[in-house]
Amino acid sequence: MGEGSVGNDRTGHAMTSRFLLDDLRSQRMYATTVADRIWREWWGPHGATLADVEAALDECLDVNDLPVTLVAHESGRFLGTVTCVASDLAERSQYSPWIAALWVEPEERGQGLGAALLGKAEARLRDLGVGTMFLCAKSTLRRYYAALGWELLEQGVGPHLLDVWRRLATPAGA
């Protein structure tokens, strides 16, 4: 397997050549770190508390479908995370579901980990029967998402002037 490609090991963990991708429900030891990264990057700057994020993340630990949080890890070290949610942008509540809060630790960036996390999130949504998925991001990330095959739907949405992206689910193995 090449770096960034995803398969399964003998225990059913999604893995690449150097890291594992798992549901947070099976890797709860990373919940505090995931909450911290989401809070620092997205929620804290807008007035939410870390406890608010922890409460929202608890939802991911108690359900069978959405929301779901995935983590990338290697040898007990947190590398990144992504979450699938029903709604991520109040201004576009008609769209659902969303891939949200893609985070890769700074020292791990540029190695295919973000693409692997997105791919695993897309596969999870596809397994739930989703035909179309969405995400929102800062305009500075346009080249990144376009290169991964996402279609830019709208620009400058909401008070943070976010881009809205869409991806049609592809059948498994396609």
Automatic annotation (TrEMBL):
Keywords: Acyltransferase, Transferase. Residues 22-171 form the N-acetyltransferase domain. InterPro entries: Acyl_CoA_acyltransferase, Bact_Acetyltransf, GNAT_dom. It comes from the Bacteria. It holds the Pfam family Acetyltransf_1. PANTHER family: AMINOALKYLPHOSPHONATE N-ACETYLTRANSFERASE-RELATED-RELATED. This is N-acetyltransferase. The lineage of its organism: Bacteria, Pseudomonadati, Pseudomonadota, Alphaproteobacteria, Hyphomicrobiales.
